[in-house]
Amino acid sequence: MNRPLRLALTKGRLEKDTVALFDGLGYDCDALHHKGRRLILPVTGPQGEQLEVVLAKAADVITYVENGVCDLGVVGKDTILENGVSFYEIADLGFGRCRFAVAAKAGENPYGGYGQLRVATKYPKVARRFFEQKGMDVDVIRIEGSVELAPLLGLSDVIVDIVETGATLRENGLAVVEDVTEISARLIVNVASLKLRKQEIETLAGRLGEGIR
Ligand code: PRP
Which ligand 1 atom is nearest residue 147's CA? Predict the structure, then answer.
C-alpha cells in the first residue's frame, strides 16, 4: 500500500489557519493540537484516510515538495514568488492574505533622485523583477529581517516587503509608495505525485476548496 499522502505545512500563522480548516472539515488533528516538538504528525480524514503533516519553514516546504518527499505543501505566495519553480500551484486557500509593497520614509518621493535606487528586501528576486518591469535599474540589498530598519538607518531608499496591517510601517515612520502584488496561502503539489496519486490529491484539494467557501 502507498504511504499516506504527505503535506508540508509552513509553521506559524499558515499552520494555524490550515489546522483550523482541517478541523472544520472533520479531520482528526489531535496530534497537531498536541504536537510538542514533533515535526511529523499523523492526521486522519473524515473517511479514515491517513495524511502525514510535516511542519517546516516556508522555503523548505517548497524544497520538500519539489523533491517529491512531500506530495503537497501549504505555503505563502511570497515564498513561491521568491523560491518556487517546479511544482503545480493548485489552489488559493484564501487565508494568510497580505501584499508585497514598496515603502519609504513617509512624505518622501524615493523615485525623485538621480542615483541608482537602493532597495532593501528579504525578497531580492521579487524586488529585482518588479523594478525591471518598471525599467528601473536598482541596487538590491539583501536583509534577513526587520527590513524596515534599512531606510531608517540610511542603508536604502526603499524596501520591498510584506505589508499586512501596515502597523510596522506606520510605527516606524514609513509609508507605502506602491503595491507590488497580492499574497495569500497556496496549495502546491509535486508534479509526479499529481500524476501518480491524482484521485487522492483531487479529493483533498476539493475538500479544502469547499472548506474555504
Ligand atoms: C513581516 C514583514 C513586516 C511585518 C508586516 O515581518 O516583514 O515587517 O510582518 O506586518 P504588519 O503590516 O501587520 O505590521 P515578520 O513579522 O515576519 O518579521 P521579520 O521582519 O523579522 O521577518
Answer: 20
| pLDDT, tens only, 54-76 | 999 999 999 999 999 999 999 99
* pTM score, whole prediction: 0.93
User: What distance in angstroms lies between residue 163's CA and the mean position of ligand 1's atoms?
Assistant: 7
116 lines ligand 1 (CB under 6 A): no
Confirm or reject: Cβ of 164 under 6 Å from ligand 1.
yes
Atom of ligand 1 nearest to the CA of 167: 14
Q: Could you tell me if the CB of 133 is within 6 A of ligand 1?
A: no
Q: Tens digit of pLDDT for each residue in 125-158?
A: 999 999 999 999 999 999 999 999 999 999 999 9
Residue 54 DSSP label? E
Please list, in sequence order, all residues whose beta carbon lies within 8 angstroms of the beta carbon of residue 4, skipping any fewer than 6 positions away. Answer: 42, 49, 50, 51, 52
Pairing of strands 40-44, 88-92: unpaired
- 80 by Cβ neighbours in 10 Å (0-12 / 13-18 / 19+) ranks as buried
Q: Is 161 in the pocket of ligand 1 (CB under 6 A)?
A: yes
